[in-house]
Amino acid sequence: MRSNPTRRRALAVAGAAGALLAAPALAQAPWPNKTVRFVVPFPPGQAADIFARMMAEKLTDVWKQQVIVENKAGGSGIPATEYGKAAAPDGYTLMVVSSGTFGVNPSLFPDLPYKPLVDFLPISNIFLVPLVIVANPRFPANTLGELIELARKEPGKLSYASAGPGTSQHLSMELFKLRAKLDIVHVPYKGSGPAMADLLGGHVMLMMDSTAAALNHIKEGRIKALAVTTAKPAPPPLDKIPTIAQTLPGFDAAGWSGLAAPARTPLEIVAKVNRDMQTLLNDPAVIRQIEQRAAVPAPGSPIQFAEFIKKEIDTWGEVVRATGTKPGT
């Protein structure tokens, strides 16, 4: 996709924030000197929420100020992201952004009321996480091959749950359907937590979710895992789950989540948050905690995160166009 001035300006600002990482701290009032909020556009239990809470707890110790997580679920993350966009640019309200809100939504919603690389300053990615097709134990298919066979025998009769329209869970499943030439009906929920509750209860039989959110249920045998979306196997203990690429060569998709600040937030604050995030995400103990949730730490500079977001917008835009996905479908 061709570059544009607003994206170039956003990358330049992110680069300026990155340059401050090695610069001496400027004389200014200490930040933070009060509670910091992380706005999460999903309900509790989703991967973005899980790792936001992990970072909030650890940054509370680093900053000696409380960092709280505020969940604002629904509407494909749009209302929460608008809320974050409108927050005072003082560093005390930071937005947890994701593959859905920043990667998919710009292509899925023509009138999206925010521009990821204009209305926000990227700070750092937090994690990358494989997604996984999971099923209720009563679902007749036990492998991806059996699922494909069943769906082809009964086109339009099977359905799957996702965390909501435009999420990476939704679009990854739509990409799988496109590649496998399947007709499986999408049942969107307001977050993976409610969707998982219905999967466990047998109200839906199939779901695409993050390995982080589904991990404990898989380990306890309450649901069965059919395949993961990444080209490489998921980290242990889910490394024995087959990949979709073993059946559909070349398939590769992942969820992610990071931190961004409202535009016009002082770059010194962006740089400080980034520095402290990098320290945490490179700490062996934190790495183990993230990998134990079947995810991978993804530290980087503001400019690296901005470039990553731009690539994600382009990639998921192609998926949206190829699958014909519309909001709410």
Give an account of the 3D structure.
The protein is an alpha/beta fold and 329 residues long. It has two domains: 5-129 and 254-323, D-Maltodextrin-Binding Protein, domain 2 (3-Layer(aba) Sandwich), CATH 3.40.190; 131-246, D-Maltodextrin-Binding Protein, domain 2. The protein has helices at residues 5-20, 47-63, 78-86, 99-108, 116-119, 144-153, 168-180, 192-200, 211-219, 267-281, 284-292, 302-323; strands at residues 36-40, 67-71, 93-98, 120-135, 159-162, 185-188, 206-210, 224-228, 254-262, 296-297. Strands 1, 2, 3, 4, 7, 8, 9 and 10 form an eight-stranded mixed β-sheet that branches. Strands 5-6 form a two-stranded parallel ribbon. Strand 5 (159-162), helix 7 (168-180) and strand 6 form a beta-alpha-beta unit. It is globular and about 65 Å long.
Brief overview:
The chain is α/β, with parallel strands linked by helices.
Distance between the termini: 25 Å
Give me the number of helical elements. 12
Helix content: 40-55%
Strand content: 15-25%
Low-pLDDT stretches: 22-27
Largest sheet: 8 strands, mixed
CATH class of the largest domain: Alpha Beta
The second-level CATH architecture of the largest domain is 3-Layer(aba) Sandwich
The total number of structural domains is 2
CATH homologous superfamily heading of the largest domain: Bordetella uptake gene, domain 1
Number of E-type strands: 10
Rg on CA atoms, Å: 19 Å
Question: Structural class of the secondary structure composition?
Answer: alpha/beta
